[in-house]
Structures are given as structure tokens and as C-alpha cells.
From TrEMBL:
PANTHER family hit by this protein: DNA UTILIZATION PROTEIN YHGH
Family indicated by similarity: Belongs to the ComF/GntX family.
Protein name (Swiss-Prot/TrEMBL): ComF family protein
Top-level taxonomic group: Bacteria
Lineage: Bacteria, Pseudomonadati, Pseudomonadota, Betaproteobacteria, Burkholderiales
Residues of the Phosphoribosyltransferase domain: 75-134
CDD domains on file: PRTases_typeI
């Protein structure tokens, strides 16, 4: 299933790159907390990102971002509670943080609802020196 989703997302990435001043140099998946990774057994965002043929010069760095806080699932929360839920959850990997400086990064995720998680990650990456952060997401849900 991840390969099928990756194919659709790859097409979206290629179409969007035509409209960007620069291609992302680094692609990274939205990380799971250690507890959720153990429970689930895989990171769906990483599994989607792996088969994507990245643009020239683009590399996938699976562990660039760490999720140290085991947050509640965003889908279970009201939009007003989501920002509080992810506050302080994400960190850059200290051993790889130097690679962010001056780069255009792309974050890969499976589903977006309100964008709170992706906004928190984009803010983190920009604070670490990224000049641009682009999000690529397979599906969008709506909040009822």
C-alpha cells in the first residue's frame, strides 16, 4: 500500500516542483514517538517516503526530526487542542542539525487535517536554519 501511495505522492511532488524556485534538498518523514513506533511497528510517513524517486540532488533523511513526546493522536483531538498537544514534541537530531542550515526541506506525511503537526515541524526546521519548508501529504481530511 505504501508503494501505491508513494506513486501518487511522487506525481504530486513532480507537478509542484515546476512551480518552486528551488527543489527541496532534504526530504524527511513526520516522525512517530518511540512508543507509537513500537505499538504500530512502522512509521507510515517513512514507508511512503522511501519508494519516492526524489528530484535531482534530493536526499531522504529519515531521522532528521525526532518526536520525543508521545502525544495523543491528533485525529482524536478538537482543533483547539492540537497545538498544545504537539508543543515541545519535535526536535532536530543534534547529529544532523547542521544539514538543515540554508536548505529547502520537504516534509512527507500521510494525512493532514488542520496542519498543526506540519506547522510545528516547519517552525522547528526554520528555527534550525531552513530557508524554506514544503509539505507533501497524501490525503487531506476535514474536521467535523
Amino acid at each position: 500500500m505504501a508503494t501505491l501511495i508513494a506513486g501518487f505522492l511522487e506525481e504530486t511532488i513532480q507537478n509542484n516542483l515546476k512551480h518552486m524556485p528551488t527543489n527541496p534538498a532534504i526530504f524527511c518523514p513526520v516522525p512517530l514517538s518511540r512508543q507509537r513506533l513500537i505499538t504500530r511497528g512502522f512509521n507510515q510517513s517513512l514507508e511512503i517516503a522511501r519508494p519516492i524517486n526524489l528530484p535531482d540532488g534530493g536526499i531522504l533523511i529519515p531521522d532528521l526530526i525526532w518526536r520525543l513526546k508521545n502525544t495523543l493522536q491528533q485525529s482524536s483531538l478538537h482543533p483547539d487542542d492540537r497545538q498544545r498537544n504537539v508543543r515541545g514534541a519535535f526536535f532536530t537530531n543534534p547529529a544532523l542539525a547542521h544539514q538543515i542550515q540554508g536548505q529547502h526541506l520537504a516534509v512527507i506525511d500521510d494525512v493532514i487535517t488542520t496542519g498543526t503537526t506540519l506547522n510545528a515541524i516547519a517552525k522547528l526546521l526554520k528555527q534550525a536554519g531552513a530557508v524554506r519548508v514544503t509539505n507533501f501529504v497524501f490525503a487531506r481530511t476535514t474536521w467535523h
